[in-house]
Structures
1.
Amino acid sequence: MNAVATEGTKTTYREAMREALREALRSDDRVFLMGEDVGRYGGCFGVSLGLLEEFGPDRVRDTPLSESAFVGAGIGAALAGMRPVVEIMTVNFSLLALDQILNNAATLLHMSGGQLPVPLVIRMTTGAGRQLAAQHSHSLEGFYAHIPGIRVLAPATLADARHMLAPALADPDPVVVFEHGGLYNVSGELAPPTAPVDLDHAAIRRPGTDISLITYGGSLPKALAAADGLATEGIDAEVIDLRTLRPLDGATVTASVARTHRAVIVDEAWRTGSLAAEVSARIAEESFYDLDAPVERVCSAEVPIPYARQLEEAALPQTADIVAAAHRAVD
């Protein structure tokens, strides 16, 4: 992860997210945080620790254990002119609020003829690798990237964790932010921003000429590590961080494939019907004649994520799997 850090303040991904929330609460009285254990407990993953003491229970609200109820309350608050940030503990639990997100938040602006924007931010932890078993470990970002009417973000770097929230809150549409649980303890140097975070475009985290490694979220450090390993073998890999999963920035992907002529897509979700499948289809549609080898996909095994450490690691995409896929494309 050091490959995407910059010089400046030493921090962690968790602390960067907390500072983003603190800045939002300080700068706009309409902003408030709500969710399970976000207040007194400090957040299930410690992101909101200390915010209740700083801003009080009106701005940092603990909710009952009912995702449908508190996401619905967030939608109502957004319709009334507030700027709620709703935290759902894990992506698996968000399915209990999928009716609110899909049938209400994502549709009201359209169904009202533009009269009812829903400026709501929903944060949730996603991903595996922490031995939390099948009900707490899946990567369901592709479910949400399928839904028109929402923006879907996957901050993978310290800078994006710190600076994506402000433009998300300024968006008149609902924004869903996926924070990979394996990134919270990642530390590095964070520089002051030189420009607002661009929510519309993917980022080239490492330029290269021989193959494009395309990924997002918690798989970015693995892709960067794979690129480092490939470099020792004389293979120059470009690493693309999608960052925004809806709307997807296909132009950056196709431009990269035009340079490298090969692609590996890394996605912690299941292969079938995945975001990796969407990216692969777009490359086939738009970059077919640029390809010198079939597109490779590295995804999780088609099983519920296991609890046992060795089985969990076997089920997830690993750096060695990415390197092997790159070799299949290049060799």
2.
Amino acid sequence: MKEKHLINLTLLHIGIGFLLAFYPQLSKIYTLLIVLVGFYIVDKNKNKNNEILYVIAYIAGSEVFLRTTNGNPLHEFGKYSMLFFTCLGFYHNGFPKIRNPYWAYLLLLLPTVYLSFMYLDGDFRRKISFEILGPICLGVLALYSYKRKISTIEINIVFTSIALPILASCVYLILRYSHNIYPINSHSSNFYYSGEYAPNQMATALGLGVFVYFIKAITESASMKMYFLNIIFLCLIFYRGLLTFSRGGIVTGLIAVCIVFISMEISKKGYFLKRKIGISLFIITTVFILTAYQTEYHLFERYTNFNIFHTKNNHKPKGRYIQITSDIKNFSENPIVGIGVGKGKEIRKATYSLNVSTHSEITRLLSEHGIFGLFALLILIFVPLQLYFNNLKNVYLLSFFIFWLFTINHSATRIIAPLFMYSLALMKIEFEKEENSVVSK
């Protein structure tokens, strides 16, 4: 993508963030435009250049933003639109071969879904769809992405498609939720600075933005002007992510940054200048220290207290500890077919008076799907790892995989961002042809 076009698109999305900050009711129009423009781009090009991935990447980057501004016609708009565009990709490129391992993954999800119709109370359709829609979306998109070829130029467009709506949401947060009358010196997640929406999901989106803008800064910036522009956006997104006081998404983004750096070292391909890496890490550290000072150093305490088992002032088990232990107990008592999709929430409500779905997709698969969930999990873990060890030149694969793995452990599949990142880990990125263009100047 030419630098001029990239700057124009960036200014457009800064404008979108500015506009929705003052007129959030326009968000529904924004959502409609995403679908219509996305469909037009795919249909016009017949998905010859992986346009499906560009559209889904954009939806993944904008999903939390649309939820925050009430732009979604449905809460799970992101997942349904992901399924629609993936099926559109099958229409243009054909269905995957039977040897694709993700057919087996999808089949492993079915037995327990059937079981759930017999044992769930109340609105079983809604309960099943809430829990199983994410894993199904992951399987369908993985079918499409498995060993699909994509060039470095195309993967850079994917990064840009993710980054731009996240930048728009950051602008929205800065303009609409920056009043100092609300405290930011607490030890819990801050709903106000998360756009009065779920801090966990907002931090996940902003953490993804940190990761993507870091990659764009060190590999895609053809000039120092673009490098510093990307670094400025990275700092703004990182700063707003820290103010959510929700640790999972930000820590995951930073770990993914470290993993891509290590992968680049292992590949020995020299896709970056170490000077840029050093400057970027120094700036990230500086932003953290300055934000900690702004929060009277409560940010340090928040990030150094990762004890999920007990609260700070007493020894009562915390919610996520109860979720994990109850899932493990359910698996040990029902190891064959599990307890059924959506049944875990009912059991926690009856046993612990905790009316919440689990935050860990791994323990949920084991609890609700039993040994079928275990085999499905093994497919999810070992297939991308095998692809990586067969091609160490793919410097992004491990970071994509780690982002998925860490995110589903603190946010399950509530948003499609980790599902999309996982699908990218399955693709064959062709670095050789564009190798010279990727080296930072």
3.
Amino acid sequence: MVARREVAAAEVVEAALGRIARLEPSLHAFREVWGRAARARAREVDREVAAGGRLPLAGVPIGVKGAAGLRSPVTRRLLEAGCVAVGATSVPGPGTGWQTWGLGAGGRTANPWRRDRSPGGSSAGSAVAVATGMVPMATGTDGAGSVRIPAAWCGVLGLKATNGLLPTADRSGLAAPGVLVRRAADLAVWLECVLGRPVPDAAAGAGQAVTAVWSPDLGFAGSEAEVVRVARAAVDRLAAAGVVRPVPPAAGAGAALLDPGEAWLALRAPGGDRRRAERTRAENDGRLAALLTGARLLLTPTTPNRPHGHDGPGERYSTALTWAFNLSGHPAVSVPAGFTADGCPVGLQMVAAKGGEGLLAEVARAAEGVGPAVRGPAGGESRCGPGSAPGRGSPAGQPSGEPPGGR
């Protein structure tokens, strides 16, 4: 709309800053809010548009994961496309364990659907900011599920790109840039802007379902029964709508992997057993290659568990179903699947062959129209994707447009 001069970037950014000011005190999604700089940048965008500049994301307010994220090559490309960075979103605090997912300037980051639960991490604030409409897009990095997990637990879309496709400072090779959005169409726009080229339409074709293999646990994760039920119901809805066509694994392929946990940790820890880690990686790579030869997608719940409390999940790894694809490097997206009976969002993870981001974006777009409309966690109507709405109709039974209650 800004690019078409239907509205000014300054107006859009001012509205975003106003929503942040209203919601931030209870959600703590931001470490820093850059109001003055954002307003100045919005005025620059308006001047560029008026002068005939072509900015595909003119005036789009974005949250940037952590203050350091402003210097990343991916963020710079988004700014060049016309985005306006409004603040640094929350990440885990210094010295905290992996169970602590987000610390904003005002305190721990709350899940907007269940304030007593974690929003996931480590792109915690980015997911909350997008889920509540503070911004339509936020950056993230995904080293073990750090984009997909908060996307699943906050009811938004989160894409991890193919490892190595985009530049990253992570020396282990396990992390990849990603993005969190509310609308599936924005995934393709993000890809085109950060890649600097059009993303090929990789869908199977108009009206043709995409073949997909379903796995509730990848053979090792011990997924919660209700989480599996919600995610599987989403797959069934997609199948009924002709978006995907579930197929069994190709002969000899199977949908089970070796648990990647030890290998992932060994590759990140000094002195880890890299030879053993590489054996696990090679075995899983072979299994995934065989599986994705017989089908175009692998579908799983995004996490084996629902959002846990702020004290952490204990010994359970919420990364169990995501970090296999950091080890292998495959692209993956989490799309909203529905809700557990206690109002917690569940994500459906879709994994494609390397370089298959276009396919993931197209399937996510098709999935968006399948689910019923539900009230968002901070007002406004949105699509639940292929899943079902929470049993009480709105987050934690909250009828107003404000974030749900809780501590």
